[in-house]
Write a structure and sequence with these properties.
The complex is a heterodimer of chains A (82) and B (151). By secondary structure, chain A is α+β, with helices and mostly antiparallel strands. In chain A, a hairpin with a 2-residue loop joins strand 3 and strand 4. Helix content of chain A is 20%, strand content 26%. The longest helix of chain B is centred in the C-terminal third of the chain and has 18 residues. With 151 residues, chain B is of the alpha+beta class. Classes of the chains: A alpha+beta (82), B alpha+beta (151).
Chain lengths: 82, 151
């Protein structure tokens, strides 16, 4: 099982703040997981944005970051705090 | 080191004074307060909502403080960041740094704000006359953070 969270503009575009996915062997990295989500249809193309940011287990990382069963991952637009 | 993420407003002056309250080795305190403006990108802004990633937010801020402490000899560091609904004129963020000498306090405060703006999971949604809009990240913020890259 993998927990995926979406924030801000992505949360609104996808109509959900997160979901649990059954673990699949081809979720080899955050990028591979994103590719899987992009296949769901038009609304999901928001995750194809070039300035998308992501996190694995609450740490910023790149799309090449490997992921594992049990992880909490997140996709979000460029952060705008401060 | 103290990191606080809260809905309530804070008093930047009081936070600044508290930084050196019980530490006579401190010779320099620098404080930054970011406020909510009533305009952005050419439009009036009536209010704002700050979303964040509970759990990660606190960790990300703590990590930035640890990095600042590794680069400068800091005696105290405090970060406060608001979340939730804000009105124009209200404080959003406080960063205070304390050191024996001014250079470390000035530079580390600047560094923490640059990293906070590009690495801490906060997102601003503004209320304008044309409706709500998410604030987009700025290239200038990325460039500012890039100044601190170590060779």
């Amino acid at each position: 099982m993998i927990r995926v969270q979406y924030f801000a503009r992505y949360r609104e575009a996808l109509g959900r703040d997160g979901e649990q996915l059954d673990w699949q062997a081809d979720f080899s990295s955050l990028g591979a997981l994103r590719d899987y989500l992009l296949q769901r249809g038009d609304a999901w193309q928001v995750l194809a944005e070039q300035n998308l940011m992501c996190a694995r287990n609450q740490e910023l990382c790149g799309l090449d970051e490997p992921i594992a069963d049990g992880d909490e991952v997140a996709f979000f637009p460029t952060v705008t705090g401060g | 080191m103290a990191v606080r993420v809260q809905e309530n407003a804070f008093d930047g002056g009081a936070e600044l004074n508290a930084l050196h309250a019980d530490h006579t080795g401190i010779g320099a305190v620098v404080g930054f307060v970011g406020y909510m403006r009533d305009f952005n990108d050419g439009q009036d802004v009536a209010g704002m909502f700050l979303e964040h990633y509970p759990g990660m937010t606190e960790k990300a801020l703590a990590k930035i403080v640890v990095e600042a402490e590794a680069r400068w000899p800091l005696l105290k560091v405090e970060i406060i960041h608001r979340v939730g609904a804000l009105r124009p004129g209200e404080p959003i963020v406080f960063v205070g740094t304390a050191s024996a000498h001014r250079q470390a306090a000035f530079e580390s405060c600047d560094f923490i704000m640059d990293y906070l703006k590009t690495r801490a999971p906060f997102w601003k949604r503004e209320d304008t006359a044309e409706g709500q809009r998410w604030v987009e990240g700025r290239a200038s913020d990325q460039q500012a953070a890039g100044r601190w890259r170590e060779p």
